[in-house]
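Hello Y.,

Per our agreement to keep a running log of every chain we model this quarter, I'm adding this entry. I've kept the format consistent with earlier entries: sequence first, then predicted structure.
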Amino acid sequence: MVLVFGTTYYAKRPFGWQTANWYYTKAYMGALMSYAIVIYKTYGPPQLNLAFLHRLIVDENVEYLLLAFFWLMMKPMVVTLLPFVVFSLFHVITYTRSTLIPAVFPGVTAEIQRVRQEERSGTVRTGLSAAGRVSKYMGDWSSKYYSPALREVGVWEVAVVGAWIVLGAVTFQTPLLAPPFYFQFLRMRYALSAPTRAAFRRVRGFLDNML
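Predicted structure for the entry above:
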């Protein structure tokens, strides 16, 4: 949530650049906290062995944690925020649907499961409460748009952010360290992520058609 709201206020920039940059920093701090919590919940305390290190290296959450830290240290670039905002939006929806709503309305989960079973059998007899409708809508919306969002984020990371970083380095607006660091990140994503490989194919196909 910190990431989503921080990005929203940064994009609006109604308070001047100094305040906008403060929101940019808070957005990436929110990203760092989010990924750190996810990684800790997945792996627990750090372990000093190669097997643990290998599991971290191939985990996309670790890759995005390092990338978020890198962008936080750089001059603000709003184009870098979009992938994190998209991921964060789905995380907020999932957390709200699976944790917050059931905490306030304990019967919602069983209610939705019952209705889904009735839908599969074609005999819907009961309706949903207001909380149930909201939770079900959030779940259906997330299931419908998560994969397309990943595909578009992949294209954005390859085409938009990649081009922005190169242009910034050529015009001395970003450090020369930025392109090799970011392209190493893309290299890891290409090796481990099917959406990223598909994004490279889409960008290559677009460029082939243009040329």
